[in-house]
Amino acid sequence: MLRNFLTVGGWTMLSRILGLVRDQLLAAFMGAGPLQDAYQVAFRLPNMFRRLFGEGAFNAAFVPMFSTVMVQEGRDEARLFARRTLGVMLAWLVFLCVLGEVFMPQVLRVIAPGFLQHGDRYAMAVSLSRITFPYLVMICAAALLAGVLNGLHRFGMASAAYLAFNVVGILAIVGASPFFPTVAYAAAWGVTVSGVVQLGLLAWACEKAEFGLMPLWPSLTPRIRLLLRRMVPGLIGSGVGQINLTVDTIIGTLLPAGSVSLMYFADRINQLPLGVLGAAAGTTLLPVLTRHLSAGDIQGAHRAQNRSVEYVILLTLPAVAGLLVLAGPIMIVLFGHGSFTEHDALLSAQSLRAYAVGLPAFILVKVLSPAFFARGDTRTPVYVGIGVLVLNFVLNLLFMKPLAHVGPPLASSITACVNVALLVVLLLRKNALVVYGTTLSHMGRVCLAAVVMGLGLWGVGCMVTLPAIFVTRAVWLTGMVMGGAVFYAVLLHVFGVADLPDMLARIRGRLRRRAG
User: Fold this and answer.
1) Cα torsion for 51, 53, 54, 59, to the nearest 10°?
2) What's the structural domain count of the chain?
3) Residues 310-364: tens digit of each pLDDT
4) How far apart are CA 497 and CA 445, in angstroms?
5) Does one domain contain both 103 and 184?
């Protein structure tokens, strides 16, 4: 399980790094203003579908059913189920895409009401959204193919294919911009083209696995109906984080121009640990839990759940400490160039700190939700999700005036913490979660190590401030990050969380085996 966790996490990390390069280009070319706001809103709508389907409701409903059919009825029946599902999905998505293209002005009135005050920004957002919206058809179909590959325990290619989004996006911004009116149009076309590339790569991977998935004519068989019943409520239960971010965007359009952009770039940094750990945990845990439960191994499911929580806490808490201390330098070094000023970077850093507070909760939601989904329960997360959505909206309204661009991120973090608390209580009541004493002890010592590491970074930052020259700034930030990582590893050894010499020996042994 840890190997699969690290495989998915490694590919996702590479994708996030390329995504960071793409975002740096967007910031440098468009800055934080009306044009950037229009593009980010145009990207938010199909991207929300990508997160919901690729990492949320569809994956949560489809993977357990696919894995169960594979175990109980064989490979051929599982392939037939996947082909039928793909046919139904494509029919629905194409219909939804056509509606979106026709009624995009009305859609933008809902998700970007603040743009109506500025006609040019609204018109630009409508045009860009019509370019990016077909992306949802390709990427949701790609999510199905990735789910099949995950069900076949081929996690590598399913994760690697998502690199195409950022690779194509970078090429579009750098190479295609001269052929379009603005960089925003080139970036928008890059989004849609990347969906075609990702779908093609995953289809090729399925063929290579001798599991080709030519879609069948749409037919609502009993098994497809069951899938839909489990999937539709899960759109809220599993995707509450993305829906909350969309609410943040709606509120952001009502704030001063540039607020949407400030929150977007902060969220992109927050997404580095969130996307890597959240996607890895959710993707690898769900099939494992389903397999244990299908075999009647309840203790095995509990052990897998506890291990996932330990991995997430171990890797998330130092990221929180680092982001809280180094948010300003991170945003300045990564984005404070070209049209994105140093002042913009510092404002965005305020949003980043607000997102970072809720980072463990954002990821733990992805670890706890599979405990419901693997048992076929998609209703409970829905009820929790509805309550959390209402709370997020109320907090956004309370925070938007006094906190401006910090309000929506802080509201999302608070609601994520409430979400986790409710899920834990409900799982404990259902006896679907057993938290071992060793896990609690592990979490406490990891928390202490992260706090000490954060205080150490803060102390060093007070003594050695951020230089003025970009190169020395980059060196300073790299040294702080690497130094913090080493210090954290030493603290884990001191507090008995990990055996550092043993870890180093294992890494050297693995490197030697690969070299051999």
Assistant:
1) 130
2) 2
3) 888 888 899 999 999 999 999 999 998 888 888 999 999 999 999 999 999 988 8
4) 7
5) yes
Helices marked H in 298-406: 298-335, 342-357, 359-373, 379-403
DSSP string for residues in 40-63:
HHHHHHHHHHHHHHHHTHHHHHHH
386 and 236 in contact (C-beta within 8 Å)?
yes
C-alpha angle 199-201-204 in degrees, rounded to nearest 5? 110
R_g of the chain computed on alpha carbons: 22
CA pair distance 283, 298, nearest whole angstrom: 20
Instruction: State the Cα–Cα distance between residues 291 and 288, nearest whole angstrom.
Output: 5
Residue 48 has pLDDT above 90, yes or no: no
pTM above 0.90, yes or no: no
Q: What angle do CA 403, 119, 135 make, to 5 degrees?
A: 80
Residues 173 and 288 in one domain: yes
CA–CA separation, 231 and 45 (whole Å)? 19
Domain encompassing residue 478:
436-516
Question: Any idea which residue has 């379009």 for tokens?
Answer: 180
> Are residue 477 and residue 419 in the same domain, yes or no?
no
The number of beta carbons lying within 10 Å of the beta carbon of residue 220 is 11
447 in the same domain as 404: no
Instruction: Choose the final residue of a domain: 400, 419, 435.
Output: 435
How many Å separate Cα 135 from the centre of its chain? 17
Residues 6+ apart with CB under 8 A from 405: 252, 255, 259, 262, 263, 347, 348, 350, 351
Specify whether 230 is located in the same domain as 363.
Answer: yes
Extract the tokens encoding 186. 């080139």
Kindly report, residue by residue over 434-492, the tens digit of the pLDDT: 888 888 998 899 999 999 999 999 999 999 888 888 889 999 999 999 999 999 999 99
101 and 48 inside one domain: yes
Final residue of a structural domain among 435, 466, 488 = 435
Residue type, 77: E
